[in-house]
């Protein structure tokens, strides 16, 4: 049975979940802006109508633009599942300490992943560590949701 107090700003777990979710939405929006900035810096445009001069040609292969696009795609593949699982996990009435730290782990590691992949490129294992912290935290929440559903 769903308890109204679980989806309430009075619930510190839910409040933390929506805070980190909103921050991650802004982070994903920023990736679109960074992609656009790199497109202008490198004059790498994917559409004919975006070309600023008849001398320019459509290009799809700038390594800086593609790196940011890959980081953005990785966000879409990993943050969107967190939004769903994090909310469902909140509904299982988890330990506040554990849930809040799982949300923090996902948020901080996804921000770190972007920083070491698309902003200041750092050699492995930095990106892998950031990726797996968020993945494991989200997977743990998913397993807890499955266990609570007991279907």
Automatic annotation (TrEMBL):
One of its GO terms (molecular function) is glutathione transferase activity. Keywords: Acetylation, Endoplasmic reticulum, Membrane, Mitochondrion, Mitochondrion outer membrane, Transferase, Transmembrane, Transmembrane helix. It holds the Pfam family MAPEG. Its main location: endoplasmic reticulum. InterPro entries: MAPEG-like_dom_sf, Membr-assoc_MAPEG, MGST1-like. Homotrimer; The trimer binds only one molecule of glutathione. This is Microsomal glutathione S-transferase 1. It comes from Drosophila virilis (Fruit fly). The gene is Dvir\GJ18600.
């Amino acid at each position: 049975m769903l308890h109204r107090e679980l989806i309430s700003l009075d619930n510190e777990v839910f409040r933390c979940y929506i805070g980190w979710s909103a921050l991650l939405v802004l982070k994903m929006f920023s990736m679109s802006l960074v992609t656009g900035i790199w497109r202008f810096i490198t004059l790498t445009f994917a559409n004919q109508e975006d070309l600023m001069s008849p001398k320019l040609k459509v290009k799809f292969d700038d390594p800086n633009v593609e790196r940011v696009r890959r980081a953005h795609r990785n966000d879409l593949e990993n943050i969107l599942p967190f939004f769903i699982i994090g909310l469902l996990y909140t509904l299982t009435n988890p330990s506040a300490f554990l849930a809040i730290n799982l949300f923090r782990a996902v948020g901080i590691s996804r921000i770190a992943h972007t920083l070491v992949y698309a902003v200041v490129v750092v050699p492995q294992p930095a990106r892998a560590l950031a990726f797996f912290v968020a993945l494991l935290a989200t997977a743990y929440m998913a397993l807890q949701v499955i266990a609570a559903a007991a279907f």
